[in-house]
Each structure stands twice: as structure tokens, then as C-alpha cells.
Amino acid sequence: MVHAMDFAAMMKALMDERGLGVRALARKVPCDPAHISRLASGKQRPSRNVAQRLDAVLGASGRLLACAAAAATSAPARVPADDWDDVKRRIFLGLAGSTALAAGLGAPPQITWLTSGRRVGPGEAARLAERTARLRHLDDYLGGADTYLLYAAEFQATVTLLRNTSCTQQVRTALQAVTAEQAQQAGWAAFDAGWLPDGRRLLESSRTAALDAGNTALAANALCHLAYLETGTGRSGAATAAAACGTAGRHAPPAVRALLYGRLAWAHACAGQAAETGRALETASRALTRPSRHPDPGWASWYSHTEAQIMAGRCWTVLHRPAQAVPLLAGALAGYDATHAREKALYLSWLAEAHLYAGEPGQAAAVTSHALALAAGVASARPRQRLAAVLTMLRPYQAEPAVGEVLDQAAALPMPAPLPSGPPTPGTAPTPPR
Asked: Three-state SS for 292?
């Protein structure tokens, strides 16, 4: 069991090794010196955000983060069985990379089934679907560069299983749906890490597998991801996003329909099409209030009223309509869970931009400061790109005290380690068997 003192002991040793006192470290983090003192003495447990910043400044390579995550789970000596998955999830927050995550989860069971040479049945398909759903939640807390290898390995293992074992057509269809979701996980991780060609290949493989499984909603989500990738690279994703909405159809589950039309709104906004943006946002909003006889699939359930509000705020920001954007974003983000550091940092960057369009550089600077703290240590290319753009927009106002302070804060932050230029092996997406 790891306690707060374990974190404190490691923190103090790293401070001594680098010749940093409490005040000097507080300036680098940045943080209140009294808070740093309480952490170093073990009198207070660290939050994830502070632990992340301390880890970066002290060059702990994830060790302080691991201690902080483990300390958060150390209160009960016995953990009820129903809570065990949540405890493991919280411990995962402190792990530095995909290799450690894979070790924590154990090897993909597909490998064992292949070596045993047995026939794959409904039980194995259900187990893989459950495992894939659990892996999905890692993306809530970790960047794509940390999760890609794990997601890609799972996808390749399931494709290999399908090619080399026998099963009924019903089981094959279920496994094809699993490969479709696994390819989406890997493709999204590649996109988040900035590895766009690999992301595109995996998302195209996902769409193929979903269509083979007869899962039009999942195929539509693959197209939706591809549209988002297109807009993220400066191209119009409107046609692809519209195709995603058409693939899902009018009777798709509410969260699926809302997610797809939210992304369609984003594509229209990035193309400067205000009227089309408004219509898509209205369709997405109506979808979330529509009753349904069928539950939303797990991969779409994250798209809540809050996420829809944030998407609307982002769209109006891109269209330079701060009077609409600021209330939406500020209201939704006020209670947004900071453990979702990548998303909150990204969303805050659009709020900061909206404040600038409203002629409020001081407010923009305050929001940017919060976003910088959240984004530290997240293995994702997108927050880095967004915050770099916002800081560039702030520079003309650097004579204002608040703006000068946030620019100094950004300059004082340790430079993040550059993400690899391409994904590690496995890198080429296999073709799902038909």
C-alpha cells in the first residue's frame, strides 16, 4: 500500500537531487510555496494536476504521478469486488505509457485462445467486447501517444483470431463489431498523437469491419472520426460528416445521432458556414431529448448535454461569435471534471479564444493559465497545438499584466518531451477479415 509519505519522500529526494528548495520549486511549478511544503512533508496528498506538474519539473518520468495515483487508492485496506475496476482505473492514471498499461491489464486473451487452438464461441466474443469497453475508458485520462500501442495490439490480436480460428457466423459478426471498435480506439489515439496517416488507415479499417458486422451506427462513427481528422488538418470535413449522419439514419440511438450532428456542426463551423452550423446544432440538441427504445452504445454514451453545449460553444468561437460562445463554454466548463485533463485543456483554449474575440484579453489570459496547468504532461498533440495558437494570439496584448504573467508562465514551464514522429510498432493497420 502506498501512502502520501511515499510521494513526499520521493518528491523530497528529487528536490535534493536537483538542488531545489520549496520556494524555487514553487516558482517553477508554479504553485503556492505553503502547498509545496505540505506536500514535501507528507501532510497533504497531491492532486493529479499538481503531481503532473511536479513530475515534469522534477524530471520524475512518471514516478511521482504513479505515487500520487496509488496514494489516492490507499484509504481502504479491503476493496469490495464491485469497486475493484474503479480502483484499477485510478491506478492507471499514474502509469507513464502503453507498455505499463498492457502489463497492468495482462496479455490479450486472444493470444491464449490462438495457441490453444480451440473454437471461439459466444463467451469469448462477449469477453472481448467487455474488455474493449474497459479499454475505451483509458482515453478519458491518457493521451493518444500513451494508449496507441495498446489499442493497436488489441485490434491486431482480434484480427488474427478471426483469421485463424473457427466460429459460427453469429460469433464472427460479433467479433467483427469488436474489431471495428478496437480499430476506432487505435485510430483515434493515432490522431490524438498527431500520427494522421495511421489514424486514417485504422479508421477506414474500422468502417469496413463495422459494415461487415451490419453495425451502421459504428460505421457512421468511423466516418465521423474521419471527418474530424479532415477538419483538424485544414480541409473541409462537411461531406464526410454528412455521410456519417446518413449512414446512421434517422433511427440511430439518441447519443449517436447527437454526436454525429455535433461533429457535422463542427465541420460546417470550420468551413465558415454559420447557417448550416446552427441547423446541425439544433438537430443534435433535439436528438439528446428524444426518447428511445434502445440504449445508447457505450462508445457514444460520453456525448452528454454538457458535451453538446461545449461543442456549440466551440462552433460559435470558430465563427467569431463570442456573445454566444462564452456563456456556453464558461457554463459547461465550470463543473467539468479536471481529471479529464486533455479535454478540459482543449475546451478552455476555445473559451480563451472567445474571450479574445470579445475584447477581453485579461479573461483570456486567466483561462489560458488554467489550460496550461491541465495540459502539462498529457501525451497528446492537440492541446499543445491549440495552446500554442492561443499564446500567439495573446502576444499583442503582452503589455497587460495578466497577459504578461501567462506568457511568462508558459515560458517557465518545462518543455514537454516531443512526441515521436510516428507510432511505434505495430504501425500498419491490418485488413479485417470478411
From this structure: coil
